[in-house]
Amino acid sequence: MRYSGLTYDPATGMITGRMEADVATVMANVGPERGFLAGTLADPETHYVAFDPVRVEPKPEVPVPGAVQPVGWTYTLSDLPIGSVVTVRNEAGDELMISDLSEPLTLLDAGLYHLAVAPPFPWVGFGIEVELRDA
Fold it and tell me: For 102, left (φ over 0), alpha (ψ -120 to 50), or beta?
């Protein structure tokens, strides 16, 4: 009998691959550093293995702000998952990376900004262009 399913990191729930094999091969490849979830297929880009009980779940997504904001817009960084890194770049190419999320990010000048949030696993971040306009 053959089994198919996902391999994953039991420490994090990160999906590492797909396996189709007989029981002996599955058992030989499963251990403390590699889990196997039989009968399940999922995209590792959008899903992860959650625990208690073990199951596949969609990765949570960081909410994406609107693409047009008023001058003086404030983005509340403390709402982001702990461990996130925020990158903001203005039209001149000046870039700022923020890992201290205790203070909000306020953009004071009109123009186009690239805003990216890189959260820790299993969160899904984003990268967008935000235009600040005078009210």
Answer: alpha
Residue ranges per structural domain of the chain: 2-58, 68-133
User: What whole-number distance in Å separates Cα of residue 45 and Cα of residue 122?
Assistant: 10
H helix intervals, 1-135: 23-29
Answer yes or no: are the C-beta atoms of 121 and 81 closer than 8 Å: no
Count of residues for the chain? 135
* Average pLDDT for 95-119: 96
Instruction: Quote the pTM value.
Output: 0.83
CB atoms within 10 A of CB 32: 7
Look at the domain 68-133 and name its fold: Immunoglobulin-like (2.60.40)
